[in-house]
Design goal:
This protein is mostly beta strands. Helices cover 6% and strands 46% of the residues. The relative contact order is 0.17.
């Protein structure tokens, strides 16, 4: 499952929920007739529950949505804090040079000199741009996910090459 965002609060009294998306184009989720929810973002696929999307729209920096299985505010409160995900084949195909965060987690990171810097453990959204959390044992490096630092992403080789020093 690719985690897309998280439900952060009920919205109104008719079962709508407010969602914090973990990506750049959350309105594309409207093309998916089903969303999958779980309280645990690392749950195996069989533990995610499928919900039918009724409506979804932009609201501030996030989304609000209503699901067929969530008829009122009480039901919306019961899923507050749940993660929203979808299986890979249900997602819209990313544009050239764009990636789902789930595709980047676990990739090896090396610099221009070929030095291993660690592995992508997660990403942060800072508002201005996303940031790779690169972990190497007890060391964590935060590398902006922008063209100035990220030279190339090779999903087939499971590698990201960056302009970043080991001692930065």
């Amino acid at each position: 499952m690719i985690v897309l965002g998280r439900i952060v609060a009920p919205f109104g009294v008719q079962g709508w929920v407010k969602i914090h998306p973990f990506g750049d184009d959350p309105l594309s989720w409207r093309t998916m007739p089903h969303w999958w929810l779980s309280a645990d973002d690392k749950a195996p696929a069989e533990q995610w529950r499928q919900y039918s999307l009724k409506a979804c729209r932009a609201h501030g920096k996030g989304l609000v949505a209503t699901l067929a299985e969530v008829p009122d505010r009480n039901a919306a409160e019961a899923i507050d804090g749940f993660y929203v995900a979808a299986p890979r084949d249900a997602l819209p195909k990313p544009a050239e040079g764009e990636f789902y965060w789930g595709d980047l987690v676990g990739l090896a990171v090396e610099n221009e000199a070929g030095e291993a810097l660690g592995e992508v453990g997660g990403l942060l959204s800072t508002g201005a741009h996303d940031v790779l959390q690169v972990r190497d044992g007890d060391t964590e490096r935060l590398i902006p996910f922008v063209a100035a630092y990220v030279l190339d992403v090779d999903l087939a080789a499971r590698r990201i090459r960056v302009a970043w020093g080991r001692d930065w």
